[in-house]
Design brief:
- Its EC number is 3.6.1.-.
- It comes from Anaeromassilibacillus senegalensis.
- With about 300 residues, the protein is of the alpha/beta class.
- It folds into three domains: about 60 residues, Nucleic acid-binding proteins (OB fold (Dihydrolipoamide Acetyltransferase, E2P)); about 150 residues, Rossmann fold, CATH 3.40.50.300; about 60 residues, Ribonucleotide Reductase Protein R1, domain 1, CATH 1.10.40.
- It is built from eight helices and 15 strands.
- Strand 1 and strand 2 form a beta hairpin.
- The longest helix has 14 residues.
- The structure holds guanosine-5'-triphosphate and zinc ion.
């Protein structure tokens, strides 16, 4: 029969890709040519498949990507929701800022969601992120605070959720739509970190135009949580630097320590939050001596 169909990869397991088409869901393999070209099909990819007589298919072509992330491995997303809990596990602004920068670098809208606000207030995080101009929401999957607001944000978009293991991503998604019935887990006290209850990336359909990807959680000690941003691009990934970064004394200013740096002055004047600038400096120092191949 060899019928050609267009669809979207919604899940990948052990070399098989599940492609959703207007007709139905097909289990497909990728053609060898992708491996030769070192292209890995990603969840979220729009693809062209060829159907075999037995109803399985082959991915023939990956359509051009709007964007993609390597960590978490997804393509064509509209926004990245970075979930962090007020405690248990405790928030780490550097990790939040790394995830925001990775999204900004790819043209993906970042959103910060602070969870478990029934346990403690997350207002100090609101101060940091509202000042930076990043959309910010406080939620609790126990009291349902903020759940409707996040749900409204998902309408008509493809959204990936990221955040440390145990911050409550799956719990929040279940509150947003109880049909998802995602598995949630207790944090292992013994290891002091969450167990990996979410195993693989999968696009879950909320309605015909809205999808969410719950991605595997990471322990807070993981350094490889998200894609690194190269040093030249980093200043563009902190949106609140924008009004200042062309006003520095030196055009080559790294905005980390130079005399006459307008960004540093803005930190001093309380216009840029010191926590955000500290993350910028830490990230700059982390990537400044990396070689091209080490960025992957
Ligand atoms: N008090 C409180 N506990 C919560 C809340 N949300 C989640 N939890 C608890 O936190 C633990 C982890 O929740 P999950 O939803 O599994 O976290 P996750 O981010 O999906 O974790 P991974 O799948 O490992 O990435 C569970 O014991 C939940 O019951 C909340 O809003 N308030
Ligand atoms: Zn500067």
């Amino acid at each position: 029969m060899n019928e050609m169909l267009n669809g979207r990869i919604i899940k990948g397991i052990g070399g098989f890709y599940y492609v959703e088409t207007a007709k139905e869901l097909y289990s497909c393999k990728a053609r060898g040519v992708f491996r030769k070209k070192r292209i890995t099909p990603l969840v979220g990819d729009q693809v062209q498949i060829r159907l075999d007589a037995d109803g399985t298919g082959y991915i023939e072509e990956i359509l051009p990507r709007k964007n993609f992330l390597t960590r978490p491995p997804v393509a064509n997303i509209d926004q990245l929701i970075i979930v962090t809990s007020v405690c248990d596990p405790s928030p780490n602004p550097l990790l939040i800022d790394e995830a925001i920068a990775a999204a900004e670098d790819k043209g993906i809208e970042p959103v910060v969601v602070v969870s478990k606000t029934d346990l403690q207030s997350g207002e100090w995080l609101r101060v940091i992120y509202e000042k930076a101009g990043i959309p910010f929401f406080a939620v609790s999957s126990v009291t349902d605070e903020g759940v409707e607001a996040v749900k409204a944000l998902l309408k008509g978009k493809i959204t990936a959720f990221t955040g440390n293991s145990g911050v409550g991503k799956s719990s929040l998604l279940n509150r947003i739509d109880n049909r998802l019935a995602l598995e949630t887990g207790e944090i292992s006290q013994k290891l002091g970190r969450g167990r990996h209850t979410t195993r693989k990336v999968e696009l879950l359909k909320l309605d015909d135009s809205s999808y969410v990807a719950d991605t595997p959680g990471f322990s807070s000690i993981s350094l490889e949580q998200c894609d690194l941003v190269r040093k030249e691009n980093l200043q563009f990934c902190f949106r609140e630097f924008e009004p200042y970064r062309n006003a520095c004394k030196f055009s080559s200013c790294s905005h980390t320590c130079e005399k006459g740096c307008a960004v540093l002055q803005a930190v001093e004047d309380g216009k840029i939050h010191p926590s955000r600038h500290a993350s910028y400096v830490a990230m700059y120092n982390e990537v400044k001596d990396l070689k091209e191949w080490e960025m992957k």
